[in-house]
Amino acid sequence: QVQLVESGGGLVQAGDSLILSCAVSRRTFSSYAMGWFRQAPGKEREFVAAINRLGTSTYYADSVKGRFTISGDNAKNTYLQMISLKPVDTAVYYCACAETGLSTAVRTRSTDYRYWGQGTTVTVSS
To answer: How many C-beta atoms lie closer than 10 Å to residue 7's C-beta?
Structure first.
């Protein structure tokens, strides 16, 4: 069983920065890759960023490349550092966890992820 809790969202102005955190709790040891997705009002959920289970490989959506950075720590918590925020970044941000076994692949499809957090809202004003 895995539980994910996001935090760090809020209301900011265009050009500001935010760091989202995803606290991961596990009842059993396993190997996981992590990802961030977002869903803007009236739109479908979209991929934002992902990191493999070892933290050695990352992948980003073109829309956030160069502005967002995904990272993890030894406790397997995951972070999304966001700079130069734009109004189009306004969305509910979700972290997600995928069981990977020994694979070191980065997962970019929402269907790859079994566990999801409840989301944290980011609102960027112009």
So the answer is: 13
Beta bridge partners of 37: 47, 94
Lowest mean pLDDT among 18-27, 60-69, 113-122: 18-27
* Torsion 53-61-41-14 (CA) sign: positive
Q: CA-CA distance, 102 to 97, in Å (whole number)?
A: 15
Taking only the tens place, the pLDDT of each residue in 23-73 is 988 755 568 899 999 999 999 999 999 999 888 999 999 999 999 999 988
d(CA 47, CA 59): 10
How far apart (Å, rounded) are the C-alpha atoms in residues 69 and 125? Answer: 21
Residue type, 28: T
Q: How far apart are CA 6 and CA 10, in angstroms?
A: 12
